[in-house]
Specification:
alpha+beta, 37% helix, Beta-Lactamase, Heat Shock Protein 90
Length: 870
């Protein structure tokens, strides 16, 4: 086996090492693992024997209350109550004199599988202890909050952590797209070697270690020269080792300790930086000698790390969101333009420049039916068939992207200067047709902390791994690679792929028996529309009757009915042809709960990306609305101190279990009688979906579990945590304006007129068509306008042009899902979707009145509750 093969084997060994089952802890503390509820001791670290003055064998199988003082057991009982209900949480306790030597200790309690773990750390005389972690973290956060640029933000963070903990060196280590890492900020004591700007190979932090960093935010090694303390017994009755994933005392791999010693590090601490559920990087702390960091100081560092993580996510999301909004405007402009052309290939070829503005690249082209059309920096024409063949061999209909094209097509290294990166968008149902975006080579020099090609040394006889000993700067000239494609650019590419595929399919349909297919489709559409309208009218009739029966007065009746209709409308708005008649569970939950994220209330939403079908979406939307309404009126959301957690999981049988947990609200009393809302909660899911519902009215808060069968849902591969929720703005219209309302449906016009008057409009001029509206404008000076886009056999765009020429602000109202009917010269006009609420209508008008004219160069303005550019 050659040297390179040794290193590859070492990398695989590290990536597969079960480091959470190390079977030992660091010697500065003690570990006891108990089964609950009897507090039966199942595992202990062997040094507990000396701490408590009794043999290990005599402890196993005993109740913990026979080993520890009564006052500590009381505190442990309170802590255990919390951690058993919240998996992954930890509770820290500051206790008095413990053990045979009666030393002051800190205690940490957490759950690991079916066991409760208790960590005890003597901490009698440490100059760092005694600080209030909340006060420490608050002071650090205050100093960090005033930063503007990212460099200042990162520099201030490492300075704050080093000042608090006293470590010799504190760094921010960021993971890059290829798994390697880079030190992007550093604060160090004089005489310490600087690692700022250095890169580290992915093998320095193998995958199991990254997973533990993700699950356990804080890790300390107080002495890199420690001798591990074994745990007895090492395995349980089923032969399973103790899972130490959450254990702060967990003994780390010997190769990692050697790695630290080779760096001249005697102690270390790391705080995980999590962004949108992924491990973004680490706040890494090093000390030349052993250093103990007490629990309260670690708690402060943990709190600071969570704030730092949130700020990183907010700042990066804002940057991505600004780019994606600009890209969406170009996306709609492109799709609208393609829709007017009968030949997709020719239409796309004429607009390749627009694609280069949408996704930054150096060249772009379309390979459709063996025909190549391109512009900018693209591969040689002779190389394109081989490239397309390599892409087709991937056998995927999703976006394919690489910043190292030669890894996909080896012969690409011959023309790497002109093309070293590609994003390929399949635009047909079978592999073969692609839209290709290219990036030029980006030569750059990377400075590594040591040779990245030799991260480990392997003894060929024993197979023992040893980390590299040198961390001197090692420069590498990187060629044949382009700038990497960002997550935001890949999302924009995926949306473009779907839209182009839809366009190609529509064009193909139009060219194949267009008249016959169109006639059949229209007949089916009319029949389906008639069926759905009848169902919708029946549902509305049921909601009106049930809301009337359960309401005590007219105001409550209107409020209940409006809320239920709004919940159904949002659910149906998610279920469109663009979403394949599916709705996202997270969107439904956030649409109900996000308006109440204010004050001191805490609302947690957690779960995998679950997509619901067109039957379960509306049913669940009504249930979530009723649960939210009850929580706002009587439960956790009725007070500022309330806490609501909505979490879901998908089991092995593909069933989704949604858990609703309220705490911190008024004491709960079971309902004396069952109204319509309670009946809907209890019976809707079992009746319509054959699922299960369990609602418990516990004194501390309502707890409910809703179980949906797997045939009504699927788990998506796309992370949906960035879902934008609908917020509920408030406030009326200032200055008693005169408003022009253009709406061809009389009932909707009457309702909207009434809403505008309630919002403060002094006068509402109503028109049902273009002629009447223009007539009103010739005689009446209006301050704002609400225009229904589609007026039967005409549109309101002529009215919009007239208002624009006068500088009169206005908003579009539409029942369609997107802005396809809005021309480019009105791209900045707010669009509100029907059915809308008084608050969303008010916010849209106030946004329009306060916005600059659409031709001022702004992007599209979107009011809360109104339509974004989709």
């Amino acid at each position: 086996m050659n040297s390179r093969q040794h290193h590859m084997t070492a990398d695989r060994d590290c990536d597969n090492a079960p480091i959470q089952f190390s079977g030992a802890i660091q010697p500065h503390g003690y570990l006891i693992a108990c089964s609950m509820p009897g507090w039966i001791v199942r595992h202990v670290s062997v040094n507990v024997a000396g701490f408590l003055g009794m043999p290990v064998a005599s402890m196993l199988g005993k109740s913990l209350d026979t080993l520890l003082p009564e006052e500590l057991m009381h505190s442990l009982g309170n802590a255990a109550t919390t951690v058993m209900m919240e998996p992954g949480s930890q509770q820290r306790i500051a206790e008095g004199q413990l053990g045979t030597q009666r030393v002051r200790c800190d205690v940490c309690v957490y759950r690991s599988g079916a066991l409760l773990h208790i960590e005890i750390e003597p901490n009698e005389a440490n100059p760092l202890r005694g600080h209030d972690p909340l006060a420490l973290a608050q002071g650090m956060i205050t100093r960090l909050a005033g930063t503007t640029g990212l460099d200042e933000f990162h520099d201030r963070a490492v300075q704050q952590v080093r000042a608090m903990t006293g470590f010799d060196r504190v760094m921010i280590y960021r993971f890059l797209h290829d798994g390697s890492g880079k030190v992007i900020a550093e604060s160090r004591r004089s005489g310490m070697e600087s690692y700022l700007g250095l890169h580290y190979p992915a093998s320095d932090i193998p995958q199991p270690a990254r997973e533990l960093y993700r699950r356990n935010r804080l890790r300390c090694i107080e002495d890199a020269n420690y001798t591990p303390v074994p745990i007895e017994p090492r395995v349980d009755e089923q032969g399973r080792p103790l899972d130490l994933s959450q254990t702060g005392l967990r003994s780390v791999a010997p190769v990692h300790l050697e790695y630290l010693r080779n760096m001249g590090v005697g102690a270390s601490m790391s705080v995980s930086v999590m962004c949108n559920g992924r491990l973004w990087g680490l706040i890494a702390c090093h000390h030349r000698s052993a250093r103990r960091v007490p629990m309260d100081m670690r708690s402060a560092a943990d709190l600071f790390g969570m704030f730092f993580s949130m700020q990183v996510a907010v700042r990066e999301d804002a940057r991505d969101r600004d780019y994606e909004i600009r890209a969406r405007v170009l996306h709609e402009e492109l799709i609208h333009a393609l829709g007017r052309d009968a030949n997709p290939a020719d239409a796309l070829a004429r607009r390749l420049g627009m694609l280069r503005r949408m996704v930054p690249c150096d060249g772009v082209g379309a390979w459709i039916a063996g025909r190549w059309l391109g512009e900018g920096s693209t591969p040689p024409a002779a190389a394109l068939p081989a490239l397309v063949e390599a892409l087709a061999a991937k056998g995927t209909r999703e976006v394919i992207a690489t910043h190292a094209l030669s890894s996909l097509l080896p012969e690409a290294s011959a023309w790497a200067e002109r093309c070293s990166g590609v994003m390929a968008l399949p635009v047909s149902t079978t592999p073969g047709d692609y839209l290709l975006l290219f990036r030029r080579e980006l030569p750059r020099s990377i400075t590594w902390a040591g040779d990245p090609n030799t991260p480990f040394q392997t003894d060929p006889e024993t197979g023992k791994l040893s980390p590299r000993r040198s961390f001197e700067a090692w420069k590498q000239e990187v060629r044949g690679q382009s700038a990497a494609w960002s997550h935001a650019e890949l999302r924009v590419g995926e949306r473009l792929r779907v839209a182009l595929l839809e366009h190609v399919l529509r064009s193909a349909e139009a060219n194949s028996e267009q008249q016959r297919i169109s006639s059949e489709r229209q007949g089916l559409l009319v029949a389906e529309l008639n069926h759905r309208v009848k169902n919708l009218l029946a549902l509305m009739q049921s909601l009106v009757m049930s809301s009337h029966d359960s309401a005590e007065n007219l105001h409550e009746f209107v409020e209940n009915l409006e809320g239920r209709i709004r919940a159904l409308a949002f659910a149906h708005d998610q279920i469109t042809p663009r979403s394949n008649n599916e709705a996202r569970l997270r969107a439904l939950v956030e649409s109900e709960l996000m308006p109440y994220r204010q004050g001191q209330r805490r609302i947690e939403i957690e779960g995998p990306p679950v997509v619901l079908d067109n039957r379960s979406g509306p049913a669940l939307a009504l249930v979530l609305h009723e649960m939210t309404t009850n929580a706002v009126k009587y439960g956790a959301l009725s007070v500022d101190t309330g806490h609501l957690r909505v979490a879901w999981r998908v089991d092995e049988e593909k069933c989704c279990h949604i858990e609703w947990t309220e705490r911190g609200g008024p004491e709960v009393q079971p309902p004396h009688h069952e109204g319509f809302g309670s009946t809907l909660i209890r019976r809707s899911i079992p009746f319509e979906l054959r699922g299960e519902v369990k609602v418990d009215y516990l004194p501390e808060g309502v707890h409910a579990v809703f179980s949906l069968p797997g045939d009504h849902l699927r788990v998506d591969t796309v992370d949906d945590r960035a879902t934008e929720a609908i917020k509920a703005p408030s406030g009326g219209l200032a200055g008693q304006p005169t408003v022009l309302l253009v709406e061809d449906n009389m009932l909707i016009a009457l309702d909207t007129e009434h809403v505008l008057q309630r919002l403060g409009a002094a006068q509402v001029e109503v028109a049902g068509n273009v002629v009447d509206a223009l007539e009103i404008l010739s005689h009446v000076s209006v301050d704002a306008a609400v225009l229904d886009v589609n007026l039967g056999d005409e549109t309101s765009l002529a009215i919009a042009d007239a208002l624009h020429s006068r500088g009169t602000p206005f908003v579009f109202a539409t029942g369609y899902h997107d802005r396809a009917m809005i021309p480019r010269n009105h791209a900045g006009v707010p669009v509100i979707r029907k059915p809308f609420t008084p608050d969303s209508l008010s916010e849209s008008l106030r946004l329009a009145i306060g916005a600059r004219p659409p031709d001022a160069g702004d992007g599209p303005h979107v009011a809360p509750g109104s339509d974004a550019v989709n």
